[in-house]
């Protein structure tokens, strides 16, 4: 029996794929890829990566999630996608399911994986480079050294919350910062911490800075993160 592959495409730079990921994508007959729906408009962060590697000769099937805290639509899409993957698998096609970043870190694929397990389908995961590893590399700043401890925090809301993490950790990586940014951005400027801001890493729109004052009037996109060090 053949295998379904969950494949991470990395943070945005189309060349930051593993050799294994690219080899398996070239062997695939059908590739399922994620996207978002905002105000009725469909977009996909990973589709350009597939285009870059000339994979458009494959059957490309997008599954698009509404950007909402209500998970009803997303749950339905995951179930529908898992059923479509099952159908493709049983028809004899080589199936790949891709995601941005790493396959196990806040990846939409993890919800599809749960459904595929229930369907008792064989799945292999291929990990990839995550966004904050690329961010640290672009800033030429180590995430941690020796015994330093790192915390990865999504959707922090207040400066109090962030400060609490530094009681136990030396580096804090804030992901999905847009939701709480207005609450704590000005407070960060009062702290004696080092900041490494990143947005749209690995793309032509990439922007990084260590000066948070440049972000005061900047619109913070969904694909953004902040590395903070003591």
Overview of this protein structure:
- Strands 1, 2, 3, 4, 5 and 6 form a six-stranded mixed β-sheet that branches. Strands 7-8-11-9-10 form a five-stranded mixed β-sheet, with helices on one face.
- It starts with a strand and ends with a strand.
- It is built from seven helices and eleven strands.
- With 230 residues, the protein is of the alpha/beta class.
Features:
single chain, 230 residues, alpha/beta, 6-stranded mixed sheet, 5-stranded mixed sheet, 11 strands, elongated
N-to-C SSE string, H for helix and E for strand: EHEEHEHEHEHEHEHEEE
Sheet/helix structural class: alpha/beta
Tell me roughly what share of residues is in helical segments: 25-40%
Distance between the termini: 51 Å
Determine the strand fraction and express it as a percent band: 25-35%
Largest sheet: 6 strands, mixed
């Amino acid at each position: 029996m053949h295998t379904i592959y969950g494949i991470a495409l990395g943070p945005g730079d189309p060349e930051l794929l593993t050799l294994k990921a690219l080899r398996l994508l070239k062997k695939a007959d059908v590739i399922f890829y994620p996207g978002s729906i905002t105000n009725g408009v469909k977009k996909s962060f990973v589709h350009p990566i597939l285009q870059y590697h000339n994979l458009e000769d494959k059957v490309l099937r997008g599954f698009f999630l509404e950007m909402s805290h209500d998970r009803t639509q997303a749950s339905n899409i995951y179930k529908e996608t898992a059923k479509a993957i099952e159908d493709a698998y049983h028809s004899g096609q080589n199936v790949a399911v891709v995601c941005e970043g790493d396959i196990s870190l806040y990846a939409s694929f993890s919800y599809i994986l749960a459904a595929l397990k229930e369907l008792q389908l064989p799945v292999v995961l291929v990990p990839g480079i995550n966004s904050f590893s690329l961010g640290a590399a672009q800033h030429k700043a180590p995430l941690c050294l020796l015994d330093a401890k790192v915390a990865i925090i999504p959707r922090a809301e207040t400066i109090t919350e962030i400060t609490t993490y530094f009681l136990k950790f030396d580096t804090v990586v804030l992901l999905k910062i847009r939701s709480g940014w207005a609450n704590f951005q000005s407070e960060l400027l009062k702290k004696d911490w080092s900041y490494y801001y990143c947005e749209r890493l690995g793309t032509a729109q990439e922007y990084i800075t260590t000066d948070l004052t440049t972000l005061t009037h900047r619109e913070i996109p969904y694909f953004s993160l902040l590395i903070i060090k003591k």
